[in-house]
Give the backbone structure.
Amino acid sequence: MAKKRASSSKGSETIRSCANIRSKKHPDVRCTYPAAHGEFCARHHKNPTRFQEKSSLEHVKSQTQILAIQAIQRWWRLYVGFLRFSKQGPATNTPTVSENQTDIYTLESIHAIPLIYRWSYPDSKRHIWLFDVRSLSMTRAQDSRELLLNPYTREPILEKHESHFQHRCTWLRARKYCIVHSQDVELSTEQLWHQQILDVTMKYDMLGYHTCIHWFEELNTRQLMAFYIELWELWFYRLHLNSEIKHQVIPNWNSRTTPLFKWSPGELLYRVERRWWQKVLLDILDRFVSSAVLKEHRVLGALYGMTGFAVVSQTVREQYHWLVEIQETM
Ligand SMILES: [Zn+2]
């Protein structure tokens, strides 16, 4: 029980809370489960009753004011429809125009995809496709190819559409929408962990380094240790980075409270839990690509992360052989 509470409090940091009322009996309290299905939890997403804070609008009484509010609401509905079209693509409001009528991952009708998760694009033949962002991002993170392919036609998705899709993912994650599929009310520790890895791989994707979730997950403890040591050596010695560039890539890298490397390699030889190592490394890899103010410095951070990754992972070396060629000349 204590363990369960711990995992749900961890969840609240990375996933938003359900927007529903707790129950018909308790309409004045908000549901506390994580919103694993967009705005709502698994219990409430099929038949939601949105929780509303008591607002000042309730005091508005006059007929003119009510009519004005209704006009504004009508305008908003139109405007939101237009916004969805431009941010989520042509079939978002009208799924019937899509070539595919079921989702690639859940195999359910695309009409069942929550609005917030819909993303669609036209291919080279002007056929329109509609996806659940969660399905496409999961398939993407499991695919080692550099190009994003349409899963139905195997045709590469143009870069402008891919970056449109990545922006949608980033937009959703910035608002703590969960982008892994979940059937349960509580997200399991494993699902939350997947969400965390996905968050980091998406950042590398945005900077031009596609990584596959398995590449990281398949590293054993020994490789993870070597990865840490490699990054530590690259950062301190091998790349001959001056302090100016270090601060541009990770401004607070040597802060007293949250240093980039909390331990020197010698202090870590006795840590043997794989998950502990994975968390330490995921945190470092994340800081490489999310600390800098300028994109060019985040791109450099991604290059450092990938360089260390290539040293310990055969799969990464095969995908990014030019990284190894740089290494050999250092
Ligand atoms: Zn709920």
Observations:
- Residues 18, 20, 31, 33, 40-41, 43-44 surround zinc ion (CB under 6 Å).
- The mean pLDDT is 88.
- The first helix runs from residue 2 to 14.
